[in-house]
């Protein structure tokens, strides 16, 4: 097992995800994950230019602030965001409270509700401990191969990915670089859509976002990386539509309570 062979690991543990799914985590401690997430984020900021569009930056900060205010106790503080200049329609979140958005996402997330759908989904991965789960699984299969060096890549970005792979990147790819499994992606959809509704964003924005992503992929020779994380986008849209309807009371309650984000 991973925890028996990893010198840096805390004891593996079975836990329950936000949707009630059983997870095996603990291949690395939460403190280590937070440190590695922060290092990855710092490396990406050093490698990629950041947007000078103040409106884009404020919009992302506003949405991150509104969503993270709805997180469970212990997850709410210390979040940081950055907008990177890159035409790829992507976003990510890392352990340690780091959120990155690529400028390309604004071509498919055309209002605050659609962008909240992206950001809430990615934050859903973090609070569902998906990075921990993927690393733990990979360590069990591969062993702790240069773990710390390998995990310095960010979840997105070819430069960071190549650097991480050179350092023993099988674990890095499982933990940060590659999208989650279908199971994790579906779970992040559920958690993220719930979060956005609680924050006062229209949960139908997630549906519109995915419709826009599909349209963008049809007009491109290569589908966006964010879209490719799920084998059946049409099924995903149907699930998001059904969930959006069930979340209407949550959204209405948030608005009635004064949670009416105005993020541009």
Automatic annotation (TrEMBL):
Cofactor note (record): Binds 1 zinc ion per subunit.
Domain of life (superkingdom): Bacteria
Q: Which InterPro entries match?
A: Mito/Outer_Membr_Metalloprot, Peptidase_M48
**Residue span, Peptidase M48 domain:** 57-243
Q: Which cofactor does it need?
A: Zn(2+)
Keyword Transit peptide tagged: no
**What keywords are annotated for this sequence in UniProt?**
Hydrolase, Metal-binding, Metalloprotease, Protease, Zinc
- List, alphabetically, the Pfam families matched: Peptidase_M48
Keyword match Metal-binding? yes
Q: Which family does it belong to?
A: Belongs to the peptidase M48 family.
Q: What is this protein called?
A: M48 family metallopeptidase
Q: Where does this protein come from, organism-wise?
A: Noviluteimonas lactosilytica
């Amino acid at each position: 097992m991973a925890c028996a062979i990893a010198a840096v690991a805390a004891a593996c543990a079975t836990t329950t995800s936000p949707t009630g799914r059983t997870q095996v985590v603990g291949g690395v401690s939460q403190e280590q994950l937070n440190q590695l997430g922060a290092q990855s984020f710092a490396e990406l900021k050093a490698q990629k230019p950041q947007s000078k569009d103040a409106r884009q930056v404020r919009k992302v900060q506003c949405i991150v602030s509104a969503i993270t205010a709805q997180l469970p106790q212990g997850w709410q503080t210390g979040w940081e965001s950055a907008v990177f200049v890159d035409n790829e329609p992507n976003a990510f979140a890392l352990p340690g409270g780091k959120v990155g958005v690529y400028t390309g996402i604004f071509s498919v997330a055309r209002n605050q509700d659609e962008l909240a759908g992206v950001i809430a989904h990615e934050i859903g991965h973090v609070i569902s401990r998906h990075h921990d789960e993927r690393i733990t699984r990979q360590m069990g299969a591969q062993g702790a191969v240069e773990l710390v060096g390998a995990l310095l890549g960010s979840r997105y970005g070819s430069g960071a990915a190549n650097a991480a792979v050179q350092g023993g990147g099988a674990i890095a790819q499982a933990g940060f670089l590659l999208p989650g499994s279908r199971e994790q992606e579906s779970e992040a959809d559920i958690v993220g859509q719930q979060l956005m509704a609680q924050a006062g964003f229209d949960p139908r924005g997630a549906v519109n976002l995915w419709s826009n992503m599909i349209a963008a992929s049809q007009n491109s020779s290569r589908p966006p990386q964010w879209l490719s994380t799920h084998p059946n986008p049409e099924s995903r849209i149907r699930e998001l539509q059904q969930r959006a309807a069930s979340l209407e009371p949550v959204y209405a309650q948030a608005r009635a309570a004064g949670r009416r984000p105005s993020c541009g």
